[in-house]
Write a structure and sequence with these properties.
Layout lengths: L1 H10 L16 H18 L5 H27 L7 H30 L6 H35 L1
Helix pairs in contact: 1-5, 2-3, 2-5, 3-4, 4-5
Amino acid sequence: MAPMSSATAGATSLPSGISVLTTFPDLLFVAEFVFGGLVWILVASTRVIVPILQGWVMFVSVFCFTISTLLMCLYFCGAHGGSAAWIAMDASYHVTAALFYLSAAVLQAYVTIIMKEAIDYKIYQEDIAAVVFSFLATLTYVIHKVFSLLRWKNSS
């Protein structure tokens, strides 16, 4: 009986309904949504100079934006239904997203640095903004990752 109540107690730490917007770290979904969307918009609006590198940045921003939005909506609906497997899935997603965004932020910074002289100033400013927001998204995902891993550890 104890393992069952332990799994149930851990699963209740995932939010459902409006509590997604009031509990930490799940409140970070909003920041992930905003920063990820800004990275997506800024990279898409600039001239793509190095397609392989900026393609990865676009993939990461669109993938993480989509999955974070989907998870937030599923949590709003209460789709996790008290399952402890959702806690592990949430933690593994945020670990992956943090690593993806770190790689994307570094690549976007590299492209911005090497193309400083080759592009006009307005595009350069947009690239700088994309770098800033990609590092902010990385930070947000890392913080969410840490607290998701703590929630997963405590649910076991």
